[in-house]
Fold these 2 entries.
Entry 1:
Amino acid sequence: MSSMDAFWKRFENKKKEGGRATPSSRQPFRIVKKEANVSAEDSGGGSEVQAVDPDILKKVKKNKRKRIQIKNDDYEQLMMLSVPVRFPQGMSLYPTQKLMIVRILAALKNSQNVLGESPTGSGKTMALLSSTCAWLKQYIDEKRESKEKCAVHGNFMRHEDDEDSKDGIKKEEDLAKEDIKPVIGAAPKKKEDLFEEQWNDDFIPHSPPTAAIVKQEVNAEVKKEAKPEPVEQKTSECTCLPRVRIYYGTRTHKQIAQVVKEFSRLPYANIIKHTILASREQSCIHPTARKQPDISQYCKEINSANGIGCTFKTNMRPRFEKAAPMRDHLQNNGTVVFDIDEVVETLATSYPQLCPYFSTNRILTQDADLIFCPFSYLVDPLIRNSSDVTIKNSVVILDEAHNIEDTCRDAASFTFTEKEFDDSLLSFRLKRIAIDTILSKNTAEEELAQMEDFSITMKEFRTHLLYLEHLVLEMLRWVRQVAQHAKTPPKSRQEGFKSCTMSSDNLFASLTDPENGIDLFTPPQSPKHAAIAASFDTITRHNEPEMQAMDQFKPSSTAIVCIEKWLYFQTYFGNQQYQTTYRLNVSVEPVNYSGRFNNTFDGDSTMNTSYSATNRTRNSAGPRNMQYKEENAWVQEAENDGDEWIDTDSSPTGHKAIFEGCKTSVSLWCMSPALSFFDAFSETRSIILASGTLCPMDTLKTELGMEFKQQVEGDQVISPDNIFAAVLPIGPHGNRVQCTFRNTSDPDSPFYSEVGSIIKYVCSNVPAGILCFLPSYRVLEQLKTCMTRNLSMKKIETKKVVLFEPRRSSELSNVMDQFDAAIFNPKNFGPTINGALMFAVFRGKVSEGIDFADDRARVVISVGIPYPNAMDDQVNAKKSYNDMNSKEMGILTGDEWYTTQAYRALNQALGRCLRHKNDWGAMLMIDERLERQTGNLQSGAVSARVSKWIRAQLKSYPSFKTFNASFREFIERQHAVVKKEELEDEI
Ligand code: SF4
């Protein structure tokens, strides 16, 4: 019986015995003091086989995984810039890949940065991985030699070698910590303590890197050492090379899974150790935790000093607190190269069952040389500083980096809602009152005084709560003041909507307004910033024995995140170099209005990217939670139920709504990506930005504010015969087609009937998968209505299963399953069905990160040019910022930037269908304005926006008849080739 079968048998038996294998009902969130007889279920299990989230078990049953055979001895090798680069046996590199590898190796050797643009299907990921892994392998050898020769660590190394080989991490950890955090004036900690500290540190939301906190920490260290210990005199300098890790960032876990698949093919798997960083929402297996609206908070609570604990975490002690046994455990369960789903499924069903979150984020990071993670772990300061991410000396790869500017601007932008402030105020106040109540009984302090090791009294804790309570009150006063400037925009389509965007000077003035009792400009060097940071530090300290008694008085996560965001904003805004990049936006929205939240691109859109009012105003925790919410739509659902502003009199704090019946929010928008990009990556060894659509590269470099000495633009590897690219300026009925707001607003416009007819024509003539991208959900809905009304949808449904991109991320995988099923088993859907048609929106979930190779997409139809919404305040603020600074900073003008945004999104969507060298497909662009992208009209450097490799094939057709002839010829030729190949296979 295999171990998996044995597991299932035990699991089923357990269910029959006590019914504890799956939770019968949702358990309320509560904190229970540790007791001897805590039930197994409450603690996440507690018996031999523990209940895990049933959805994970369903996935395990569905995805029967095969053991991966690692063939590290079976490879081909090329010497490139004196580095042996290995590839899978039988693989030959494209010239584009070779060029990219050489440029990356040159950059890594000289600590330089790289910009790499390479079309989809040209082997970009393989080039990125093989070059960096080859260089790192060589570097690790050099580093080992440097340690052996090091006067400080050489002897020590030899002495510890045996132990090193057992756990594989101790020396690396010590040296890495020395590299990263030199301890000022403090005696070095014992090696054994380092891990314990890291473990206990799991639940500490790290405070911002402010001078005050550093100073405070140093003072604390000095205090602790009232009697200074003799410091070992070092007679020699350390000559060890620093530890270098590779961070491979992409936008989503789906993309990470694809990159990991490529990594598993390389002969570096198992030589270069890897791990994945993922949130608890992605990786927690505790059945009760998974049902909570805030899994992280629940996890922290149950694992806190007074919590009931989680058996999946407890099972890790002590053996699996080290990376080497953890890797052995995974390997013994058939998992060597893993993505997040695989590691979750393995650890949920292994024996013992272990927490995947702590395993991947805390344990495997100890010895991992290659760390895969979503962008936010690298770019967002709040997430980066609360994770085990060590950017210094690392090599950072940002794949699919075409949106890096937006991502960076988002990372340094912060939104606060009136309700968020009021909730924070309430939380600070309630906790303070709780202490007041206890203190008034005059017994608690006496009790606490008898406790060993407590260093903070309730009175001190109360002082910090009160200080932050007053700070939030001051913030609310500030919001009330700035909100008075909000006006109804002239072209507002929303009743009661008000907005206002102010310059950085006005923002500064609003923060320093003594007349209204506002003194909120607190740069990092200021005493007030230090005081806020000190209070924040105190109320967020977790798991320290002396703080355990204070756990019950800690404020809500909303309150903590609110102060944390404020501290980060002040740290950035306090930097004079970047102060002028900030804009203050006030937005007032009636609570019952829902349309506004979908109005962003081209008059309205969708989106999970920059300039989305959806994210900015609904996201109470600011950019930090974006990734989290994208991946967990149920959080959005929960928020949608509870994020509305309460009525005037219902706030328990007594706060009176600034505008009755409206939700008021303030956004602090950063206009320059350079701020957070420099903050994140200035200490890396090399940063590599790669994508199929990075152009224009020159302005990208200037916007990001860093030097990229190595640059590469790869060529398309797919034969021109396999690519059909057309602009359709005219529809089958002879009307010119232009996807403007005016045309799309009119349901009777010929625009919809022409677009519908083109889609119907394509679906009737091309089997397999068809993708159709529209500028917004509004246009998509309208098109659907028109096509239903004129029966073209009905006709399409005789050939295709018609699907629509869901608005919620959680629903995407179901839709994709149906899409695949209709393509690969069409007869299950009806005798005439030959594939599927998917309607989606530009910049949406389908437009990037999903591989539509071969039959999954034979035609991509794009409708319109996806310009950002010209009515969006942030878009306009960015345009005028660029206009003001384009000459001085060498960045694009506002209009150029605006157009670039549109074409990057268009190119991304078009790139869905051509995924590898032998793939073929057609790209049909419906909009007469795109004629300028073809050779039919004069195309200069400015107007040529469609990707170079598409433009080479791009033709505009003066009539639908001429298009029809060419398109049919292309499709028939491709099918003839396919049929011939199939015939040859049979012979
Ligand atoms: S994240 Fe891990 S430790 Fe936390 S509740 Fe989930 S399984 Fe337990």
Entry 2:
Amino acid sequence: MNKSRFLSLLTISFLILATSPIFAVTYIIPWGKLNIDGKPDENINDRAVKFDLSLIAIGGTIKDDYISTYLAYDEENFYFACRAKDNSVSCKDEVSRDFKDSDYIRFYIDVKGDFEDRTALNGKGDWALIFTPQNTKGKWTPMVKECPYNGPGHGAIQGDDVTPKRASGAIDGGWYVEAAIPFSLFERDLKKLEKTTMGIYFIGGDTDKGGVRTGEVRLPADGAGNYWNSPAYWQPAKLGPFSVTPLEKEAVFWGKIKEF
Ligand SMILES: [Ca+2]
Ligand SMILES: [Ca+2]
């Protein structure tokens, strides 16, 4: 191929790429309970949809594939879990609004489904829940709080008022935390949630012996404004079919991805 033909083909390829619409994948949250005992459930990949937080937002000790999160649901709860690689667990900060200088995982959800195109956390259905793997005494008792960031929030509720059903523990090379979060916290029921395309997002943070955050990692996502408090980064998610087998869940999940 001569050079000018090659260049014109290259230009056409770029034009096709540049003009292709970008479709967001709708994540399907499968029906499945997690056993809230602080240990990863053996078949967690069948029971829950997995998210890899592979985009480094603040450098330091964070590495690729550092943190993964999981979501599932049953009649009354979301099940949330997080695995983190971490060579030093440090959770001494309980006073900052979002445990910034502890190890943490943030779970954002918009249960009303009106997150699209918003750049502020100002929706009534917007929630940011932050979990730490340990408490300030170094016990495997997760701390949890709700943070309004720059929105109205929900009263900055904490601990058992968010959920008493939470647990954590050490795993090989890091930590694990899981929780059942009742739909009633969000003042929603299964019927309403089944009809909603929700918004979800995750950010994890690392603090080590120094007691100051050294890294933050997030779900890769297109967005506008500040990634830590802008719903423009949130990803669409729907509840999967009620009570199906793991194989059927997989078929539904991949079917949905192909659908776009
Ligand atoms: Ca478990
Ligand atoms: Ca750490």
